[in-house]
Automatic annotation (TrEMBL):
InterPro entries: UDP_glucos_trans. The lineage of its organism: Eukaryota, Viridiplantae, Streptophyta, Embryophyta, Tracheophyta. Keywords: Glycosyltransferase, Transferase. GO terms for molecular function: UDP-glucosyltransferase activity. This is UDP-glycosyltransferases domain-containing protein. Pfam families: UDPGT. Belongs to the UDP-glycosyltransferase family. Transmembrane segments: none annotated. The keyword Glycosyltransferase applies. It comes from Ensete ventricosum.
């Protein structure tokens, strides 16, 4: 970020501080995207308490948001969405626990279903005038919000929930599909176009990526469209720190012509908040308290990924054989390792936490060493 751009940013912030306003945040319907948006809302609320914050989601997600620790300046707005009307399970208001082909289907359905009601929401907020609508901050997978905001004369920024290094690789693989002509061996190195010096191995690609053999693949087409739409956004916010990724932030700004702002890591900037299921969170932290510093291995594959049952069993058995205590996070039932082969219901050395755990607090705990 150049000196002039930094000065312009400071002027914009000072100007915003002198007036009340409304900032609309619109996360993608996945936990790994909702949480950074919430953390950004907490950060904005703490630094600019005069702001009104409006977080947009769907009706099926309201109850989950209301159970969380939210800023007093944040209001929730639900857009109508009935997943079962579109060939999805009735509770598919997020991508959690959906198989890859249905996640892709959800991605495509969201735009057609939510765009008209999102446009009406922005129009209503503009008409209300008080507090004035300052900007929309929408997720990188909701690129269609950028032309809507532009049409209505509203400043639009895209929030990327990762850093530009990872995002550049992700976009390049989906848009260029280098694995199609990159050899068939699982360990063959495949160059990532546009990211000098970076290669990936075929076995590192998830099954959905591996199945993409042409630009017409649904996921490839979705990512390509969102990337193009996000180019029309007037700024990009990144869940990273400039000290970690300045060369890649600068490269993104140069290639897109967009201002870039490193606003993360958002979970740290937002401060300590209650996360995870209350009872399970207390159980996890109490279990960690009983272990010595650096002794526990934390096992988590996120909310979308699944290990084959035999691999999960092998990993748990290896940890147990080595005498390493482990805390295994399993938000969905099929993410838990199978019971041990000795007929016991639980692993002796490990705690399998079935549900949402306080991941930040777990990683902060002195007992966790890996």
């Amino acid at each position: 970020m150049g000196i002039e751009a930094e000065r312009e940013r400071e002027i914009e912030i000072e100007s915003a501080e002198m007036r009340e306003g409304n900032v609309v945040l619109f996360p993608f319907l996945a936990h790994g995207h909702m949480n950074p948006s919430l953390d950004l809302a907490r950060l904005l609320s703490a630094r600019y308490p005069h702001l009104t914050l409006t977080l947009v989601t769907t009706s099926g997600n309201l109850a989950g948001f209301r159970r969380l620790q939210l800023p007093t300046s944040l209001r929730l707005v639900a857009l109508p969405f009935c997943p079962s009307d579109h060939g999805l399970p009735p509770d598919a208001d997020t991508s959690f626990a959906l198989p890859p082909h249905l996640v892709t289907h959800l991605n495509h359905v969201i735009e057609g279903c939510l765009l008209p009601s999102f446009r009406r929401l922005l129009s209503d907020l503009i008409s209300a005038a008080s507090p004035p609508l300052i900007c929309v901050i929408a997720d990188m997978f909701l690129g269609w919000t950028a032309p809507v905001a532009k049409e209505l004369g509203v400043f639009h920024a895209t929030l990327y929930t990762s850093g530009p290094y990872a995002m550049s690789i992700y976009y390049s693989i989906w848009i260029n599909l280098p694995h199609v002509d990159g050899g068939d061996g699982e360990d063959d190195e495949i160059a990532v176009p546009g990211v000098p010096g970076v290669t990936v191995r075929r076995r590192q690609l998830n099954p959905n990526m591996r199945s993409a053999r042409s630009p017409d693949h649904k996921s490839a087409a979705f990512v390509r469209r969102q990337a193009a739409l996000c180019r029309s956004s007037r700024a990009t916010l990144w869940n990273t720190a400039e000290v970690l990724e300045k060369p890649f932030l600068d490269a993104w700004a140069t290639s897109t012509g967009q201002p870039v702002y490193a606003v993360g890591p958002l979970f740290a900037a937002a401060g300590r908040v209650a996360r995870g299921d209350g009872g399970l969170a207390a159980e996890c932290l109490a279990w960690l308290d009983r272990h010595v510093s650096g002794s526990v291995v934390y096992v988590s594959f996120g909310s979308q990924n699944r290990l084959p049952a035999e691999e999960a069993a092998e990993l748990a058995a290896a940890l147990e054989e080595q005498g390493r205590p482990f805390l295994w996070a399993a938000p969905a039932p099929d993410q838990a390792p199978p019971p041990p082969p000795d007929g016991k219901s639980e692993w002796t050395s490990g705690l399998v936490a079935r549900g949402w755990v306080p991941q930040v607090d777990i990683l902060r705990h002195a007992a966790v060493g890996a």
